[in-house]
Each structure stands twice: as structure tokens, then as C-alpha cells.
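In response to the reviewer comment on reproducibility (Comment 2.3), we provide here a single inverse folding case reported in full, input and output, so that an independent group could reproduce the run without further information from us. The C-alpha cells appear first.
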């Protein structure tokens, strides 16, 4: 399904809109939140509305767009966020509601900070999950216990709870900046926004061999998906970065992306990854490395093939994104600097890299031994050889311990 830019559907001749060649597409109304016109290849033009019920987003059909006027369709929708008062130094009153401040926060972010896709996701989280529960409440009156209760209930009903909490937290910081709350009073502070589990931290060599064998076994039936999965494994790139990759972005052993989740970045291609692209380039006739059914658009998914491959490899809980975790973990445990690993992954800060770099026990043990040895070396006599020339004996360390214990007893007896 393709999504187009929001437009004012009241000024459009709906009957003249072109239909998709196959399937359906949605045209979203810019004036009513959640309202969209669904165009199908069969010829139907239908109003649908997205609404939140029990914490889940549901799609409801309103009727035929040729017989139901757009104004009538808009009446079924959730009232839009109030328009922010731009260029006004006294932007909000002391009794400003969450709905009022949220509108200003989203407008501020879209203009100065976020990518368009991020703005759409946060607007959806606000409209579907924050405003129905907290929209009428005064920003200054929101308490931590109130937020905790709201978030706990939301977590039980939708996977969007983390994004909703992050959106609310950002709005509260925005409210602090505008004097609506005391500094440091963010009621979302400290609540878990991102799970840092061990899932997909470091795949074992046996798992990797089974996975690669499964990819090879499905390559003839699922050529494009298997190439996508190979590139994800070899580059640590995000799925969207590989699926939307264009040929004119591939040059000199790298893919230079104008836009990604973290903005412009470079995906570095090792020799096997470059060989995959070289093979595909000789067979390609479109601008996309992985074209979809329509050559003018990229492939949208490899999920079906991935389920088959994952099952054959014996990894029922393995996710495509775990290949990125594995890439980062291998980089860290092999001794690469976190900044280098972060650059390979397209991260802007080390904290983001640490989420992916789960070090296995053996690597932690080796690191602990190394640190202990360095400390032991530092306790050696000034004239003793350095750790790079001679490893101190166990006996010398034991002598130092006995000497320390003896001096400690002497002090105690005194």
C-alpha cells in the first residue's frame, strides 16, 4: 500500500483522481486527522478513518466517496490538534492543556529537529494515545503517578507505548523550556523508554553457519530477499537502508545515503557485499537495487522469505534486526573502538552504539583479566620490566599481598 502526502481533499475532484494499477493507495486529508481516501484498482473510492480503540489503531470504512461529501466524512474524525500560536512570545497561558502544548511541540519539532517521517509517527502517537487520555489536563498538573498509570495501561494494549512515552516526555521538556513546569520536573523521567535486552546480542558461529546455509538453500526461489539478507548481515545496515538503496548511491566500495533514520550516512561495503551488488548491477534495469512490483518503487518487504529462512535455520525468534546487533557485537568484541562501530552503524552518539554492543561473557572475562594484569603491573617495583617485556610472576604478586598483610598486622598491633 502506498501513502501519499497529505492534501486538502475538499479542493479535489475525487472522481478525477487516478487509480492505482494494482492493489490500493491512500490519500490522507490534511484537515481532518485520521481521514483518508482509499483508491482501489477495481475502481472504488471510499472514505476510511483511523481511530484508537482500547489502545489499538483501527480502520473504519465510512462509505462511498462519491455519495458522502468530504465535510460529512470529516465529522467522523477526531478533532485536530489546535494550531500553535507562532511568533508570539507569550505562547501559552499558565493553564495550558496538554493538547495545546502538544500542538506547539510537534510544530517546533517538524520545523527545527525531526525528519518528516518522525514527525508523522509522533503526531500519530499523540493523537491516538496521549490526547484521548491526557489532552484536556493542564500540563502543570500532570503528575508522575498519573503518567505511570497511563503508560502501564497503554503497554498492555499496544506496542506503540514506548513511542507515546517518548513523545510525552519530549513535550514535557518543551513545557519546561516555556515556563509551564519547573525545570527537572518531567513526570516521564526515569520511566523505561527502550528495552535493552540481550536478544540478538551475539549469534554463535553454529547459528551463523545454519543461517548462511538456509540463505543459500532458498536463494534460487527467493533471489532478491536472500540478497537483501546477505547485505544486512555483511554491512550492519538497517533493513530500510538496503531495501530503498538506489544504484546512483553506490560508488567506490560504499553506499552514500542522502537520508536514513539518523540522516545522511555512509554504508561501507566489504568485498563480499560489493560482489553481491556487482552481480545485481549486471542484471538490473531500474534505479533501485531491489525494485518492487512496480519498477518506479523499491521493494517494501522480505518478511515472507525471512520466515522460511529463519525456520530452516532453527531460529524461531530471530529477527532481521538481530543481524545488525550481531554486526555491532562482533565489531566491539574484536577490539574496534566504539566510535568506529558507531560510524559503521550510522549512530550519532556512543549511547546508541552501546545498545547494540552486548559483549558475551568470554569477552568480559578476557577484559577483566587484562585490566587486572595492568593493575598488577602497576604495583611492580619501579625498576621491574614493563608488562610488554615481562609478565610478572604469580609468586611476586603473592609476595606483595603477604607483605601488605604483614604491614597491616603491624599497624594493628601498634
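Designed residues, in position order:
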Amino acid at each position: 500500500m502506498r501513502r501519499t502526502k497529505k492534501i486538502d481533499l475538499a479542493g479535489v475532484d475525487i472522481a478525477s483522481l487516478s487509480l492505482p494499477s494494482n492493489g490500493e493507495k491512500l490519500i490522507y486529508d490534511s484537515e481532518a486527522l485520521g481521514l483518508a481516501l482509499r483508491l482501489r484498482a477495481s475502481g472504488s473510492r471510499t472514505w476510511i478513518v483511523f481511530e484508537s480503540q482500547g489502545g489499538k489503531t483501527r480502520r473504519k470504512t465510512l462509505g462511498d466517496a462519491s455519495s458522502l461529501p468530504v465535510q460529512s466524512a470529516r465529522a467522523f474524525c477526531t478533532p485536530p490538534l489546535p494550531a500553535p500560536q507562532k511568533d508570539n512570545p507569550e505562547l501559552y497561558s499558565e493553564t495550558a492543556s496538554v493538547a495545546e502544548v502538544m500542538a506547539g511541540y510537534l510544530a517546533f519539532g517538524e520545523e527545527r529537529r525531526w525528519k518528516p517521517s518522525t514527525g508523522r509517527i509522533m503526531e500519530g502517537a499523540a493523537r491516538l494515545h496521549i490526547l484521548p487520555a491526557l489532552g484536556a489536563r493542564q500540563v502543570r498538573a500532570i503528575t508522575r503517578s498519573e503518567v505511570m498509570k497511563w503508560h502501564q495501561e497503554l503497554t498492555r494494549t499496544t506496542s506503540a507505548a514506548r513511542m507515546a512515552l517518548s513523545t510525552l516526555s519530549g513535550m514535557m521538556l518543551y513545557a519546561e523550556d516555556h515556563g509551564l513546569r519547573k525545570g527537572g520536573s518531567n513526570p516521564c523521567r526515569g520511566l523505561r523508554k527502550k528495552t535493552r535486552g540481550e536478544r540478538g546480542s551475539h549469534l554463535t558461529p553454529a547459528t551463523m553457519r545454519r543461517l548462511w546455509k538456509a540463505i543459500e538453500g532458498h536463494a534460487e526461489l527467493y533471489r532478491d530477499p536472500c540478497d537483501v539478507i546477505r547485505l544486512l548481515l555483511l554491512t550492519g545496515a538497517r533493513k530500510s537502508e538496503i531495501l530503498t538503496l538506489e544504484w546512483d548511491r553506490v560508488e567506490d566500495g560504499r553506499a552514500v545515503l542522502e537520508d536514513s533514520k539518523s540522516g545522511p550516512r555512509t554504508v561501507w561495503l566489504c568485498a563480499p557485499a560489493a560482489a553481491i551488488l556487482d552481480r545485481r548491477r549486471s542484471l538490473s534495469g531500474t534505479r533501485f537495487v531491489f525494485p518492487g512490483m512496480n519498477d518506479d518503487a523499491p521493494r517494501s518487504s522480505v518478511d515472507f522469505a525471512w520466515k522460511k529462512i529463519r525456520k530452516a535455520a532453527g531460529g524461531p525468534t530471530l529477527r532481521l534486526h538481530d543481524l545488525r546487533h550481531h554486526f555491532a557485537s562482533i565489531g566491539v568484541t574484536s577490539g574496534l573502538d566504539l566510535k568506529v562501530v558507531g560510524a559503521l552503524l550510522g549512530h550519532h552518539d556512543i549511547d546508541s552504539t552501546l545498545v547494540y554492543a552486548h559483549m558475551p561473557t568470554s569477552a568480559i572475562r578476557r577484559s577483566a583479566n587484562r585490566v587486572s594484569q595492568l593493575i598488577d603491573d602497576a604495583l611492580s617495583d619501579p625498576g621491574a620490566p614493563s608488562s610488554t617485556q615481562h609478565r610478572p610472576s604469580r609468586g611476586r604478586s603473592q609476595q606483595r599481598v603477604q607483605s601488605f598483610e604483614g604491614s597491616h598486622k603491624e599497624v594493628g598491633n601498634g
